[in-house]
Amino acid sequence: MKTEAIWQALIDRLDQMQETGQSADFWLRDDDAVEPTAALHRLLDLTERFSVPLTLAVIPAHTDERLERCLAGRRDVSVAVHGWSHENHALAGEKRQELGSHRPGGTVSDELRAGYARLEALFPAFFVPLLVPPWNRIDAEVISGLGAIGFGALSVFGPERSGKAATLLRPGLQIINTHVDVIDWRGTRGCRDHAQIVRDILARLEQVVNGGGSVGILTHHLVHDENVWAFLSKLFEVTVTHPASCWRKVSDLIGR
């Protein structure tokens, strides 16, 4: 199916949802924010132009007041905790992970507590108690202590009610995942085929219609090529004004 047709398929599905009184919440999570860059300014300007709320997963150890000044005056921006330093502590041959069992649990918890406190102090107007684990990986033992630090929600990648994500559930901790990644990490490391991304959105919409939840879009502004920017612009154009879709701040989803 050509890209134009697949976009029309998304519009048609949203039209069907509207006709049956259904709707879907979308949210946007962008990872690895540290400092003002041309790419970050472009993302901020794009989301502001379309009035799309943006959640930035910020790396606490590497950010500072420059990012706070960059965000000052921006509307609908949230800052989440992206681990501590985004450093891999996994053994050779293992998948990369910062929040794993490779170090004493107290060390990991202390870093997360420091990251929480640092971002809350740096970004008081934007901070949300949401943990975004680097590489979307976190051990269950680490999760058990998140509530004591202050976290109310956790965001990884994949369906909330099936697979690995379901094992992360803890009393008092909400899972608010992303479900559609725009980057072809295992291939070109640029934008994935637009038609395939839209198919993923359509598949997630079916999960939302049948079981609730939201459609989480995952981006990484530092590696965006022009095809990513074009995709996001088209996605926002299609969804922002449609009655069956609503772009939410992540704080609207926490505690729902």
UniProtKB/TrEMBL annotation:
Keywords: Plasmid
Organism: Sinorhizobium americanum
Protein name: Uncharacterized protein
InterPro entries in alphabetical order: CE4_u4-like, Glyco_hydro/deAcase_b/a-brl
GO BP term, example: carbohydrate metabolic process
